Every structure is written in C-alpha cells, then in structure tokens.
C-alpha cells in the first residue's frame, strides 16, 4: 500500500516552532531554516519507526541533529546512521564553523567535533567515517534516506546501489537536498529516470525535493537510474523532461541553469569541477 502524502502539499513543517528544536541550534548546518524544520518534522511526524534513518553527507552533524531531535521528541527507537568523510579544509572551517560559533582548531579532522556536537542524541546516532563508496549497508529497512553527498555521478550511482534497495516501498522517503543545485544536474536526472519507482512529494526551499519510494528497487530500477554512463546530450534530454515538474514549483529557471552548466562544462561529472556558466 502506498501511504497518502497529501499532507505534504501544505508544508506542515513550516508550523514547527523553532523553540521545539532549540537544542539543535548549537550544531552548525548548511541547511536553510525551512529545511531544518522539514528534517525535524519528518522524524517527529512522518516516520513510523519501521526502519532506519540514514543521513548521507552530514558534515559536523547539522542535518543529523535536526533528524535526531525530532526522532527523540517522538520517542522513536530505530537507529540513525550518519555518513561523512569528516574532513574540512581551512576555508570551509572558517565559513561554516568559526563563523557559526565553533572555536578555531588545527587540522582537517571534524569527526570528533561531530561526535561532541551530537552528544545529546548519542544513544540513537551512529557515525560512519570515510568515503560512502567504501561502505556497505547491513540490509535492514531504511525508512528515511537523506542525501547530501551525491556530488559526482559515480557517488550518485554508488549511493543508489547501496541504499535504494533497502527502502520500504509505499512508505520510505528520499530527501534530495541538492535537487535544484546547478552543479549537480545528475540528481534530477536520476530521479526522473527512476520515475516508475519514485514519485515527487514536495519541494522545500532552497534546493530540497522529497520523493516517496513506490515500488521495490531491483536491478532493473538501478539500471534505469544509472547516471554515470550518460553523455551530455542524454543529461540535457532528461532535464528537458524534468522541466514540467520544476515548473509546478516555479523552479524552471533552475533547470535552465543546469543545462547551461552542462554546456559550459562538457563531460564534467563532479560538482566542484563545474564552472558557473553565468560567470563566464
Ligand atoms: C553540503 S555538506 C553537508 C551538510 C550537512 N548535511 C548539514 O546539514 O550541514 C556535504 C557533505 O557531504 C560529504 N560527502 C560528499 N561526498 C562524500 C562521500 N563520497 N563520502 C562521504 N562523505 C561525502 C562532505 O564531506 C560534506 O561534509
């Protein structure tokens, strides 16, 4: 049975009072304010505690804290697994940590900082350190999969192979935090290619789109959604097919920008290597 997602149309997370999630404010995050509320709402209101919550690309745990706080407030017991390389260069440390109240420190390792920041939720969170492509999943059901690490086509396919088969059809959500990011056009393309397995449920500014898994993910689904073998024309063609969906959220311009990015960066499949087409 496919769970009704009509309530998403009213973006009920907007009504969450930030005081409810006050404890999370000490954990720096790259999430927009509305996305933070969404994450808290998903684990406090939507999930039914029938599978794990997986946070891919948690940085110092900002997203994990919002997920864990909702999970804790709702008294849920399934585990939260957060993955990251847990490395940050000086520029990222200055912009994302020191500016947000973390005292300066030496080196690039942020694992212990994340452990420390997530201490209020430590009885429900496991951190997995290292490249996601070196990890395996234990095969248990995943009820909520939050994705902020699909920064290349290789990682995007690697994540799909490792985690999508364990989603619970009809219930599980995939939160694509970078769906509308111009540097990562393969994300909307993959979700479009897997449209028989995922249906879009809501958009949450700045960049997030939420999908519901509606059919079991098998080899056929993974083959259909593979993005690493696609050439630029195939990416552009798929993006044209994504435009009507983007239009429903008045975000068609974001798809146009992705198309300009592909044309300005032929063959590039890693986000940080993409040159901004609008600054050329
Ligand atoms: C935009 S940041 C995440 C922000 C975070 N979700 C928050 O709430 O602040 C993206 C993270 O993904 C991680 N990442 C990207 N690719 C990865 C990979 N292949 N394996 C592990 N972590 C990865 C980076 O280390 C980085 O911390």
TrEMBL record:
Gene3D superfamilies from the entry? Answer: Vaccinia Virus protein VP39 (3.40.50.150)
**What protein does this entry describe?**
Methyltransferase domain-containing protein
Species for this entry: Aliiroseovarius sediminilitoris
- Write the lineage as a comma-separated list: Bacteria, Pseudomonadati, Pseudomonadota, Alphaproteobacteria, Rhodobacterales
